[in-house]
Amino acid sequence: MPHALLADPATTGAVTAHTATAHAVSVLAADGGGTETVDPSGPVAQLIIAAVIGIVVIIALITWLKVHPFIALTIGALGVGIGAGLAPDKAVTSFGNGFGATMTSVGILVGLGSMFGKMLVDSGAADRVVDTLVRKSSKAALPWTMALIGALIGLPMFFEVGLVLLIPIIVLVAKRSSVPIMKIAVPALVGLSTMHAFVPPHPGPLVAISTVGANLGTTLAFGIVLAIPVIVLAGPVFARFAARWVDIPAPDMFGSRGSGSASDDPAQAGREARRGPATQDTASLPHGKSDFTRVISEPRSPSFTVALVGILLPVVLMLAQAIREATVPNASGSWVSLLDFLGSPMIAIGIAAVYAMIFFAIGGGMDRSAVSKSLESALPPVAGVLLIVGAGGGFKQVLIDTGIGGVIADAVKDSGISVLLVAWVVSALVRVATGSATVATVTAAGIMAPIAHDLSSPMTSLLVLAIGAGSVFLSHVNDAGFWLVKGYLNTTVGQTFKTWTMLECLISVFGLAGVMLAGVFIH
């Protein structure tokens, strides 16, 4: 995967104005084979002013005018390019190059991942995993089990879908176990949010990996290792305090599992479609007198083993390829080729999607029509995410082609400040301003991309995780997730700050601490 994409030669050759007042900067060429010099499109002061104004415009459009992030990023990117001295047509070309390259590397993965997640829900595989783990847990172990459930559900699914799926589980487990709801909700939400921030194939980590040129397998391995202590500390441990600060009853929004509308529980439509033929369960009194007759019609679902294998399959394939690269980088042979093929992100997630189409469908009693409908309905919800990710890639390319990225890279290197800390701060600032983790990730990754080519492969992966940690910092009233959690758990604004906002800050800060600690030993 290329570390950074360079503009076409016509663009870089044309933007040589003001070179007497601005120095040339180096970035990796598109083929990843070395560095090429990019002449800044204007004086350093002009570049910095254009970048600052562009970022402010993006934030203002999203937060003040409520413009869709895709439009805001597009306007901001083109404005930065023109303001920095690129000819308008060159700015458009640069943006298009970055958009296309990002969609090539990320778009396919997001699409396949979305299809897998939809099959996981509609087949009942997600229900099976959750029900099995909860049933086997003691009351004391429930917070830890809920953290595991949140992480497993968060591994293949987008945050919003995972959140809507988890809420009925959180409410009903809290009611049936008589455990304070915050001891149940906090660990589950932490598991979900941590996976969203650190672990591919979520759009944020994927676009950051593509933008800065990190190795996906290495980032996946580091992300999982980092996620474990973060989930423990921000989840079950913090839940003890959250339950004291916000002692509220479980809301009465779900009478039984899946009793809400399809909009309340995304698994409901698939669950109804999978109900088998009704069976009678008759309880008899003495002398053959019938007490009552129950009609039972339970939905089918895949076994726990089948569901768990499907969730972990792409992770295992990508990790195996990463371990091979780390342990025997110069190995050759048919087994190496096969492992590298199966471990490539597109193939690994594609295999998982095919596995879901076959084994989830069979176990869930879905026919071909139901499978087709499930896969088709998986794509429209991610269209907006894909456009935002692509626009972020275009913005990154403009920063590189104008030379702004090189100027920022030089400033960071000369400052002596840790690159990882700078990445976290940039991502956190955009997150706080826009309320979007995805926008924060793609913006910060674009800004940090020129710096990444001087880093080792492990450090580049840590850079991705630092950006991911910053992207979840301080969720507040401009974040849709804030209001979703508030509405579902029936908390006040103040109580939501004490729980949801606090746990997001803990994920971010603990994530940064873990990344900085790892950075001491990895160079």
List keywords for this structure.
mainly alpha, 70% helix, disordered N terminus, two-stranded antiparallel ribbon, 523 residues
Give the helices and strands, then pairings.
Layout: H1 9-14, E1 25-28, E2 35-38, H2 44-63, H3 69-83, H4 88-122, H5 125-135, H6 142-154, H7 159-177, H8 181-198, H9 203-212, H10 216-245, H11 268-273, E3 279-284, E4 290-296, H12 304-327, H13 334-343, H14 345-364, H15 368-378, H16 383-402, H17 404-415, H18 419-434, H19 437-452, H20 457-470, H21 480-489, H22 493-521
Antiparallel strand pairs: 1-2, 3-4
Helix pairs in contact: 2-3, 3-4, 3-16, 4-9, 4-14, 4-15, 4-16, 5-6, 5-12, 6-7, 6-8, 6-10, 7-8, 7-21, 8-10, 8-22, 9-16, 9-19, 9-20, 10-12, 10-20, 10-22, 12-13, 12-14, 16-19, 17-19, 18-19, 18-20, 19-20, 20-22
General description of the model:
The protein is mainly alpha-helical. It has 22 helices and four strands. The chain has helices at 9-14, 44-63, 69-83, 88-122, 125-135, 142-154, 159-177, 181-198, 203-212, 216-245, 268-273, 304-327, 334-343, 345-364, 368-378, 383-402, 404-415, 419-434, 437-452, 457-470, 480-489, 493-521; strands at 25-28, 35-38, 279-284, 290-296. Strands 1-2 form a two-stranded antiparallel ribbon. A two-stranded antiparallel sheet has the order 3-4. A hairpin with a 5-residue loop joins strand 3 and strand 4. Helix 2 runs antiparallel to helix 3 (69-83), helix 9 runs parallel beside helix 19 and helix 10 packs antiparallel against helix 22.
Report the β-strand fraction as a percent range: under 5%
Biggest β-sheet: strands ordered side by side in the sheet: 1-2
- Helical percentage: 55-70%
What about the largest sheet?
2 strands, antiparallel
| Average pLDDT score | 78
Cα gyration radius (Å): 24 Å
What is the element string, with H for helices and E for strands?
A: HEEHHHHHHHHHHEEHHHHHHHHHHH
Low-confidence stretches: 1-36, 254-267, 275-297
Helix vs. strand class: mainly alpha
How many E strands? 4
Q: How would you sum up the global shape? A: globular
Total DSSP helices: 22
